[in-house]
Structures are given as structure tokens and as C-alpha cells.
Amino acid sequence: MTRTCRNPIVTILWLCALATVRCSAQTTIGASVVLDPQDVTVIVGERQSFFAKVRGMLSQDARLNLTTDHTDLVEIFPTSIVVSPGDGGFIDRVYEIVLLGLSPGQFDVDANVLPTGLIDDAAAFIRVTVANSQPIILISSVIGWIYFAAWTVSFWPQMIVNYRRQSVVGLSFDFLTLNLVGHSVYAAFNCALFWSGFIEQEYLDRNPRGLNPVLANDVAFSIHATIATLLTVTQCFIYERGEQKVSRIAWGIITVFIVVIIVAGVLVGTATFHWLDFLYVLSYIKLSVTLIKYVPQAVLNFRRKSTVGWSIENVLLDFTGGMLSMLQMLLNGYNYDDWASIFGDPTKFGLGLFSVMFDILFMVQHYVLYRNRANEKTLQEDSSTTTTTASNGGSKDSLP
């Protein structure tokens, strides 16, 4: 009997060719379902539609069952859909689903597929927001743009005051330096999360049903704030500043921030941290700066018994933005019955309130406590006195 000995290399090539043929014969594996759009807002007492889009190869009938966990907030029509394969087993169909708003709230609606594993349902969900009133939604949107404009413009009055006086005496360098650090790290956070697909994917991996929290106006504001603050810092090197300088306390705080950033960077380099964790560290630094940055300016005003050199227009615009921001949160809390986002996690509301309280303090200093040192005549006298004092080797407006 003759035995045939095959070359091992030929055998491997033959197996690979066979596998290729089998794979090419299977052009599509399964079907998928997507709920579109994935964010729906419906008003109480009104109806809103969304669509279940099913596409792909389907070997048998399947059923889409929509969750009914929030029947007190919304009614869904229909709650179950039978999906049947088309010619050749391929399906490409769109099914309309209607929501009827009953009570305000925010929640997810899922579409579960039976039998399981027959259809890919990873994107079979929508985020539903039931609101009390459509006009409140519009008012909230308008308020949002107004306070965005107020906060954006608020950086410019201080630069105008500095230019007119040709002096930065009265402007706290500690406040300015801390503000630059805060806006810089905030801009880095926003730009990275908004423009980096890699970091955005990290965020979505941790929050599979979340949306990127950074919007285009967040990026625009943070970049503008950083540039405007940097221009104000530049004025400090050009105009009369007396003996004012950044205090040791401020340098110490900034040094701590730098050390924290370096440590976070090392942790990223050693794969202990992800880049998203590094960005969160930057956001915590921004929050810390917001809590402390106004203190040096308030102390400087108290020591000088004057607000000359500190722009009250800046304060008024910041106060307007802060009040409108909190008003928007309260309106949204009522409209969506979402008070937990305000009082359950008070960080954002608390920071806004904290800033507004400092604005009120600055207004009291300017209009009540030191009002006789804030008129135009006194401003000119203060500026000329500062120049004269500086020519003699110092200034009365110096920081410790």
C-alpha cells in the first residue's frame, strides 16, 4: 500500500483557503437595532415620536420589548414590536413609537430583544426628558445665552480701566494669577474632551449612555477667558504697578497645583491613571481656584479702603451671569422635576452661589463702604498720587 506524505506548508495553506471560502460565504452576521433620536423631549400632555431602525440579516422573527419602568411619567405606544425577516432574510425597516408625557422627569427607555443574541441592541435606548412647559425650555435657553454673554464680556472692563488709568494699582496680582491658572486648566480640560476622539471614547466607555459634557460654547468661553486673562497679565508688565506683586501664599498654592499636575502626569505615564483621570484632576484644580481666587482682591480692597483700580463693571457682569445661571438651574429643576441635580449634588449651584456672594461683597465695598474713594475725581487723584509715590521709590498700594 502506498502512503502519501503531504507537505505541512501545503496543508496549512489549504486550511487557510478553506477558511477564507467559508468566511466569504457569510457576508453578514445578524442584525442591529437603533432607537433614533437618542435624546427626546416631550411636554406633559403632548405626544412625541421616535423610531426603531432595524437593519441586517435576520434568521427568524424577533420581538422588541420597550421597558415600562416609568409608566407614571410617560406612556409608550406600542410597547412591543414583532420584527420579521424580509426576502432572503435581510431586513431594513423603521418602526414609529409614540411617547405621551404624563409627569416631568428624566429617564432611559430600553428596547430588549427576544430571543436574546439575535439582534445587536447595544444602541437600543433613548434618553427621555418630560418637561412641564415648552416656553420654560425656550426661556431657559435664552437665559443660558445671556449669562454666557455676560460672563464672556466681564473680562474686558478691567482691561479698559487699566488702559484708561495706565495703571494696575488696585488690581490684586494674586487674584489675576490664580484666575489665569484656573482658566488655563479649564481650557485644557474642555479642548481635550471636545476635540480628542481618544479621550471622548474613554469618557463614553465609562458612561456608555452618556453624552460628551463639553459643548462648543464651553470651549469658546474657556479659550476666550484664558486669552483675556493673559492680556490683563500683560498689562501688569506695561502699566504702573507700584510695588504690587504676587504674594508668597499665592505662589505656594500655585506650586501645589503644579506638583499635583506633575504627579497626575506621572501616573498617566505609568498607566496608573487614564488621560480622562488626568483631565478630571485639572477640573478639580479649576474648582479649587474658584473657591479661593476672590479672597485676595477682597482683602486688597479692605487694606486700601478703596476699590479704585478694580472694575465694578466686571463685578456687575459676573453677578448677572451668576444669578442667571442659578435661575436657569432652578427653572430646569422645576420644568424637569430634577431638584436632585441641584440639591443632591450641590457643587455647581454652590460654586455659583459662592461667586455671587463675593460679587455682593465687592458691590458693598464699592457702593457703601468705600464709595467716597470710587468717584472719577478720586480715581484721578489716586492715579496721580500713585505715580508720584512710585517716582520716589515705592507705592502705598503694595501687597505683603
Could you please describe the fold and organization of this structure?
By secondary structure, this protein is α+β, with helices and mostly antiparallel strands. The protein is 56% helix and 17% strand. It folds into two domains: 31-131, Immunoglobulins (Immunoglobulin-like, Sandwich); 134-370, no CATH class. It has helices spanning 8-25, 134-153, 156-165, 173-195, 197-206, 216-238, 248-269, 275-292, 294-304, 312-336, 340-344, 347-369, 376-391; strands at residues 31-36, 39-43, 47-57, 62-66, 74-77, 80-83, 90-101, 105-114, 119-123, 125-131. It has a five-stranded mixed beta sheet with strand order 5-7-3-1-9, with no helix packed on it. The protein has a five-stranded mixed beta sheet with strand order 2-10-8-4-6, with no helix packed on it. Helix 4 (173-195) packs antiparallel against helix 8 and helix 7 (248-269) runs antiparallel to helix 8. The longest helix is centred in the last third of the chain and has 25 residues, at 312-336. The N and C termini lie far apart (105 Å).
